Amino acid sequence: MAREQWGTKLGFMLAAMGSAVGLGNIWRFSFVAGNNGGGAFLILYLLFVLLIGVPLLLTEVSIGRKAASDVVGSFQKLAPKTPWYLTGFFGIASAFLILGFYAVVAGWAIFYFWNYINGSFFTSPEVGYEGAFGQFISHSWHPIAWTALFMILTIVIVLSGVKKGIEAANKIFMPLLAIILIGLAVFSLSLDGASEGLKFLFQPDWTAFSNPSIYIAALGQAFFSLSLGMGAMLTYGSYLKKENKLPSATLGIGIMDTFFAIISGVVIFPAVFAFGIDPSSGPPLVFITLPSIFEQMPFGGIIGLVFFFALILASLSSSVSILEVPTAYFMRAFGWTRFATSVLVGSIMFVLGIGVSLGFGLWSGVTPIGDLNILDSMDYIASNILLPLGGLSMALLVGWYFKKSEALEATDMKNGLLGNVWFIIVKFIAPVMIILIFLNQIGVISL
Ligand code: PHE
Ligand code: NA
Known about the structure:
- The chain is mostly helical.
- 75% of the residues lie in helices and 0% in strands.
- It has a single domain, classed as Amino acid/polyamine transporter I, CATH 1.20.1740.10.
- It has helices at 9-20, 23-35, 39-67, 71-78, 86-117, 128-138, 142-159, 162-189, 194-202, 213-225, 232-237, 247-274, 285-296, 300-334, 338-358, 374-401, 404-410, 417-441.
- α3 (39-67) crosses α9.
- The chain starts with 8 loop residues before the first helix and ends in a 6-residue tail after the last helix.
- The chain binds phenylalanine and sodium ion.
- Sodium ion binds next to α2.
- Pfam families: SNF (PF00209).
- It is found in: Membrane.
- This is Sodium-dependent transporter.
């Protein structure tokens, strides 16, 4: 059977942007920035997106398009008889870890949407928004039921196939989310805490740079947010026709993703200070902050409803790109149908999600890494370790294994200034930076 392909280049762009823009921009960006001192983190994050993220995004998509295969098969095809294909298995492992917790957080978003449908979050519940959220996530099975619903939606889109399912779903949701977020940002700026929030986000506290974990946090956020390093972009690239041009497409994805992150920072942090919320509240941060904003706004109930609807759709367009990575691999390697593969893989991810969800209640004492709970541990391994390692491996393949002319051809670049800058980044700068950040994290060097 012929491999599937995108209908149009716009279809690819929307799907790749849909993959990038998701909970990472709103939920993860805010709490990681909040945990890591705001402004200092933002500077590093932007630096890494520009210097490592976008060049490697181009690299990753080009690997997929050149090989026209899944995340394991692409490395086997382009670098036969080398261990490079192991990158693919790292990517598949990351997909299980990431969707395992992504589906739980997206489930929380569906629960919020439901509370705006039935009106119970229009005004603060008796225990407050923070209290209501705490009760909900620690419940034994309520959050798991919402996770299940989100996983089912993800599976249904993926089993409908590349063009019909994934491509169609993205065209409406992204613009809608952008419009609501801009509106929310304007409102947030009118709150009493606005200047304090903006200071926190944009004015770096220079002493924060001496904390080694801020570097790995910013690197991990750049990779997670750009859907980079696990093969989601590679797999989407593999459905591209040869005539589509890559550099402008990947730059567009990077700009769009960064725009969504900054704008959600402008929504969240003024409100965090206005409502006296602790910026380092961790994963619950936006789920406590947002309803307090909506409560203050005229027509806040309706806006909250539309916002959470758009957030669910943005999450879906990301989750399908995660599920697609192992699905494409197992379909090819074992000859399974798309239907059976996506149901099986999605179900295993759901089981992981049950563990993640219990980590906020029954299993809240379980801390696999240091004092990190189950969600934070899975996130740490995937986002801060596996994704950067995947990106490093892709950079080494294209920078060192390929000939320069081959690398330029794969990315539609000429041997001019831009092509050379990109190549030097991929060959030297990005790998060195990633390795330095790892060494700094384990204490071998000190940045
Ligand atoms: N980039 C997505 C987001 O920001 C999450 C994601 C990570 C998607 C890794 C695919 C691969 O929500
Ligand atoms: Na993102």
